[in-house]
Design goal:
By secondary structure, the protein is α/β, with parallel strands linked by helices. It is built from 23 helices and 25 strands. The strands form four sheets. It has an eleven-stranded mixed β-sheet. A six-stranded mixed β-sheet has the order 1-5-6-4-3-2. A five-stranded parallel β-sheet has the order 14-21-15-16-17, sandwiched between helices. The protein is globular and about 95 Å long.
Length: about 950
């Protein structure tokens, strides 16, 4: 293994750098730079300025150089271990040699989960941790860092296809960028007017582009400071006497290539029209970075950052070879015609923070008008042609909207964040800092680095993306028809008549996380009512009259009554074949009884998250028990505490997921509400390994009101937040049932791109008439249907998700930013024709250290970072009423409609309510 000693270099500044003033060092990076500013076109210099297009903020590869992420398929099995081993041996040297003034100590320690991490201390005495891993990364990304300025726990992921000898350079970039992000967060928290309330600059100075004339000195982005770290690293290595001449010469060539790539020398031929402005731009760039360079790097740039004509023969030949290779690279930046990011005005200017609420309201109104216009257009087409329209269809939205084809018809109920009463998602802008590269939005635009991303920002982004094509606010399900075609049965949220659309191509489903489970069910084998009914039917004799009576049953209590009346219940209980099913039936029956007996006091967590409860009801509960200590449970606690200043909440469970400690919401919530952390004492977090939640337990208190108990906790209201079931998405359930009832088969596959990035899953419905394929992406794709995929596939997918999006990041795979990244990759792979179908997770994601145990119930990966919610009394949301009117899409509410819901607006039966499989009809004729 090629070790990379760097301790020979002096990490101090040059004399010239020491002479610079603090004002020069801290030139504001958050406004248009003074003098020349990098612009949109690369390879030329001259006037112009970029708008809000995405810029990747990672250690990106440099085409034509050796610093690349690697190509081809999965690497040899030992490559990941080799890259991590190289990283662990190299990081201390990188820190001591290049960042010794900023990081005073670095120590490799064992983690409690069997992993290892580096413990570091900065020059302010603050501790931080850094974990290293080698994973499949998108092409062009050599390394990326999950930065968490909330918990100061960070993860560097290196491409498992990179050459181990390039690890030191990648780490020099990532550590430099990490320190820059931490510095900005610290300054913002201290109220520094240079950064507080201002989105960071994303116009990289160290990238070839146009310079315009302004009055301010140009500043460096966080990405630029990462590149400066590379310059310092390569300069030290180029002069390292422990390396042989070939290695030093190779490093010299890499440094020269980086200088060229960064615009630190002109590329235009001397005497050409472009030469003078490029030379001027290069001089300005070198002047700005000089204070950040080590003396070795300063000397190296003095020698190499000159026009090609002034280089020695060997350097000139090396540079020309690099330029020849780099000519084939695709330019960075947005392509022509790319619309501005959501949150930006049509002219490319950002929406100011103080205008966010108004902008979100305008976007909601525009979406309502667009949805009405879309319905009018569809109905006019029906009236003209006498046939149902044909469209490409997308069902569901959220963060997946970034990957939606604008030509497709979007059917989305405007749920979750349009109903949520909370402050926003549980992550900070720093924790989702790369989200803007997907085209979703720039979180720093609306919040400081360690604050929460506001709810109105999420609404604004989603609504602006939704109206980039035809949209219907409502729900849809896919149904096969007798004419051999697949139709989308659309139920508009405005209460107008249903309509059908003939589906063209492969429909996409992105309807979010599946329903939560009822407390006390069998979490391994039979997690919901529909599975229990199937299991019971399988134990009954084929000629049992109970089969006919069980068809169309409305719930668990009715099912148990039928089994008892048919005289088969005792027999089922005496055997072992239906044990799990009966446990789930019994628990669900208790749940149904509690909801019927205590309306307005028994909830599934999603009902709280979607604001489907009344905290101000007369005589309402004041003490709440939340069963389940995952992200959803914690978010529900915050919603209740914010909605009712007199409420007291206990969160009860066996453990807290690791991601909670890394989230903005949870840490702030403890400080506000937990007495031990200085809060008002209204929140108790009861965590103990013995805290196991069974079926809901309810009795009557001395005042005649219901009471609920778990362990030593008693409360007047109960919320179940215990993880999620994994059924077929509701939009596909009818299609699945009809396929199987007709003797067909339902098959599933996992979708990846060529870089082994997970894109979602596909479901193929096979009948005698042919095949129909549907693709599922977004949060819904993180939980595979249990009746289609084997358990070990779900376990492998969960292990991959935990590794791809580590808990230290404060995110989880079904979260907002990771969903946007997945959707953007899926759209790109579809355009390029590079979607690959796999039977299982690629082996390179199955690292034993992170593999999940098989044979466990499918619970929500999102439980560790469930949706954040909070502030009561939020501004009226113009879309909320319309969203609540949607009929059909509800978070499964086992046990009946939402208590207190008006007739016709309650939840539809949850996943356990399975009726008789209908005949395959022809779609109704338009007009009927």
């Amino acid at each position: 293994m090629d070790q990379e000693p760097l301790d020979h270099g002096d990490a101090g500044r040059s004399d010239r750098a020491e002479a610079r003033t603090d004002a020069g060092r801290d030139a504001r990076p958050d406004t248009p730079a003074a003098g020349p500013v990098p612009g949109a076109e690369r390879g030329t210099e001259g006037g112009g300025e970029r708008g809000g297009e995405p810029i990747v903020i990672t250690a990106t590869g440099i085409a034509g150089s050796r610093f690349v992420s690697g190509t081809g398929t999965a690497p040899d099995p030992g490559r990941q271990a080799a890259v991590v081993a190289q990283a662990e041996s190299t990081l201390p040297m990188v820190v001591r040699s290049l960042y010794g003034e900023r990081l005073r100590s670095v120590e490799l320690r064992p983690g409690s989960a069997g992993d290892r991490f580096f413990a570091l201390t900065d020059d302010r005495g603050r501790d931080l941790t850094l974990r290293l891993d080698a994973v499949p990364l998108p092409s062009g990304t050599v390394a990326r860092t999950h930065v968490n300025t909330t918990s100061d726990q960070h993860v560097v992921q290196l491409s498992d296809r990179m050459e181990p000898r390039q690890v030191g350079r990648a780490l020099s970039h990532e550590v430099g960028e990490l320190l820059a992000v931490r510095d900005r967060a610290t300054r913002a928290a201290a109220g520094d007017p240079e950064v507080a309330g201002i989105a960071p600059n994303h116009d990289d100075l160290l990238a070839r582009g146009r310079f315009g004339s302004t009055e301010r000195r140009p500043g460096l982005t966080e990405e630029d400071l990462g590149r400066v770290g590379e310059l310092n690293y390569l300069a030290a290595r180029m002069n390292d006497p422990t390396l042989d001449a070939t290695q030093r010469a190779e490093t010299r060539g890499e440094l020269s290539a980086l200088i060229d790539h960064s615009g630190l020398r002109p590329q235009a031929p001397a005497g050409s029209e472009r030469y003078a402005p490029e030379l001027r731009a290069a001089d300005i760039r070198r002047d700005v970075i000089d204070q950040h360079l080590t003396p070795m790097a300063t000397d190296a740039l003095r020698e190499l950052a000159v026009p090609v004509e002034r280089l020695g023969a060997a350097d000139r030949a090396e540079l020309r070879e690099f330029r020849s290779r780099a000519d084939h690279a695709q330019p960075l930046g947005a392509s022509a015609g790319t619309p501005p990011l959501p949150g930006f005005r049509p002219d490319g200017s950002p929406v100011p923070r103080e205008e966010l609420a108004a902008a979100a309201a305008r976007a909601a109104e525009l979406r309502t008008r667009t949805a009405a216009a879309t319905l009018d257009q569809l109905r006019a087409e029906i009236a003209t042609t006498g046939a149902w329209p044909t469209r490409q269809v997308v069902i569901g939205g959220g963060a997946s909207l970034v990957g939606r084809d604008p030509q497709s018809l979007l059917v989305d109920a405007r749920g979750r964040w349009h109903l949520d009463p909370g402050q926003g998602i549980v992550q900070s802008p720093d924790q989702v800092r790369d989200m803007r590269t997907t085209g979703l939005g720039d979180a720093h635009q609306f919040a400081d680095p360690t604050a929460r991303v506001p709810r109105d920002a999420v609404r604004l982004w989603e609504d602006q993306l939704a109206v980039r094509g035809p949209v219907v606010d409502g729900t849809a399900r896919l149904v096969p028809a007798g004419d051999g075609h697949l139709y989308a049965h659309i139920r508009p949220g405005d209460g107008s008549p249903d309509l059908y659309v003939k589906v063209r191509g492969t429909p996409t489903v992105a309807t979010g996380l599946p329903p939560e489970m009822v407390p006390g069910v069998d979490r391994r084998d039979v997690v919901n009512l529909s599975e229990a009914l199937d299991a019971v039917r399988g134990q009954l004799p084929a000629d049992s009259p109970a089969h006919a009576r069980l068809t169309g049953t409305a719930g668990a209590r009715e099912t148990l009554r039928i089994l008892r009346e048919e005289g088969v219940l005792d027999g089922l209980r005496s055997g072992s074949g239906a044990r799990a099913a009966l446990r789930t039936l019994d628990a669900t029956a208790q749940w149904e009884h509690a909801r019927a007996t205590a309306p307005g006091r028994v909830f599934i967590g999603d009902e709280i998250a979607e604001n489907r409860f009344d905290a101000s009801a007369a005589g309402g509960p004041k003490t709440w028990l939340i069963a389940g200590a995952g992200g959803t449970g914690v978010a529900n606690a915050e919603i209740i505490l914010e909605a009712d200043p007199e409420a007291r909440v206990t969160v009860y469970g066996p453990n807290l997921p690791p991601a909670l400690e890394n989230q903005v919401q949870f840490t702030a919530m403890r400080e506000r509400f937990v007495e031990a952390y200085g809060g008002d004492g209204r929140l108790t977090i009861d965590i103990h390994p013995d805290n196991r939640v069974g079926a809901v337990r309810m009795d009557t208190g001395p005042d005649g009101k219901p009471r609920f108990r778990e362990g030593q906790v008693e409360a007047e209201a109960y919320v179940a937040s215990l993880g999620r079931t994994a059924p077929m998405p509701e939009a596909l359930q009818e299609l699945s049932e009809r396929t199987r009832a007709g003797g067909g088969r339902v098959r599933g596959d996992l979708m990846f791109d060529q870089d082994r990035q997970y894109l979602g899953y596909g479901v193929t419905f096979e009948t005698e008439g042919g095949q129909r394929r549907v693709e599922v992406t977004g949060a819904a794709s993180q939980l595979l249907p249990r009746d289609v995929f084997p358990r070990d596939t779900q376990a492998a997918l969960g292990a991959m998700a935990a590794r791809q999006v580590p808990s230290q990041s404060g995110n989880a795979a079904p979260g907002f930013a990771p969903t946007a990244q997945q959707a953007a990759r899926l759209a790109e792979a579809r355009r390029d024709g590079t979607v690959e179908r796999h039977a299982s997770v690629p082996e390179s994601w199955r690292r034993p250290a992170v593999a999940a145990a098989t044979g466990t119930a499918a619970t929500s990966p999102g439980a560790v970072s469930g949706p954040a919610t909070g502030a009561a009394g939020a501004a009226v949301n113009p879309a909320a009423d319309a969203a609540r009117l949607r009929s059909g899409r509800r978070s499964g509410s086992p046990g009946g409609p939402v208590p207190g819901a008006a007739p016709g607006t309650g939840a539809v039966p949850g996943p356990g309510s399975r009726g008789q499989v209908p005949r395959r009809p022809r779609p109704p004729r338009p007009g009927r």
